[in-house]
Write a structure and sequence with these properties.
With 251 residues, the protein is mainly β. The chain has two helices and 18 strands. It is globular and about 55 Å long. The N terminus is likely disordered.
């Protein structure tokens, strides 16, 4: 008889307990993440398997940072190659991160989205400002993962070693403004299953779930920040990805 691990029981409880909350929040927006393309690390903009024109949106990238195995900064930048920006670095990097300010967006009663806010479109049903963040772990660095400057929302592994096999549990913690945060939506496989019912972080900001892929994993966190004045924006949407690759068997 197969036994369910305590960690996965916790995940099931969280999913059931917060299901109503999760379905009431928006999960349809695009994200940014890092993935390998032709042996180069590329910055991807899209949703699911839809890779859109990331080069045309490079002007919205406000920072790109790299770190070595000791969490020391490594000079890192993006270089446009066709429709894909790739990571350039003079030295090896263990972790690469990026921030995108995607600006104002409104959704109109007819379902159309426009790059504006409620000042320009008073009849909008949703008015928001979007921020997107991406962290990619090529190799797990030494020591605890710090808060990366500029990343208001960040997903951090709770252990110093990533799982090495699909199906093994992974424990992540969501930080907002540098503090562990409850109620953050988590999509565990953003590339292959972007429409899944999100899980939600617990009181201490943690979430546990089985790793979905023996290959690229892109986990997305979503948090809506309520402004003090909602006359212009209903919320600020913060969307952060954590990506990593589990190794395949030797060829």
């Amino acid at each position: 008889m197969t036994q369910t691990s305590p960690a996965l029981k916790v995940t099931a409880a969280l999913a059931a307990g917060f299901a109503l909350l999760a379905v009431s929040l928006p999960v349809e927006a695009h994200s940014i993440w890092f993935a390998q393309r032709a042996r180069q690390l590329a910055l991807i903009y899209g949703v699911g398997a839809d890779d859109l024109d990331a080069v045309g949106r490079m002007d919205k990238i406000t920072s790109v940072t790299g770190f070595d195995e000791n969490w020391q900064p490594v000079e890192t930048s993006l270089r446009a190659t066709g429709v894909i920006p790739v990571v350039d670095s003079e030295e090896p990097v263990s972790v690469v991160a990026a921030v995108m300010d995607y600006g104002d967006w409104v959704k109109m009663p007819d379902g159309e989205w426009h790059s504006a806010n409620r000042k320009q479109f008073p009849d909008a049903v949703i008015s928001e400002h979007n921020y997107k963040y991406a962290v990619h772990i090529k190799e797990m660095p030494k020591g605890a993962i710090p808060m990366i400057p500029g990343h208001k929302l960040q997903l951090v592994p709770a252990t110093s070693v990533l799982p090495q096999s699909m199906g093994n549990p992974i424990v992540l913690k969501a930080y907002y403004d540098g503090k562990p945060t409850a109620g953050v939506q988590i999509i565990t496989d953003y590339v292959n299953d972007p429409d899944q019912l999100p899980l939600v972080t617990g009181a201490d900001g943690t979430i546990t779930f089985p790793v979905r892929n023996q290959g690229l994993n892109v986990v997305t966190a979503i948090y809506l920040e309520k402004p003090k004045d909602t006359s212009v924006y209903d919320h600020f949407e913060h969307r952060a990805t954590l990506s990593f690759v589990l190794p395949h068997k030797p060829e």
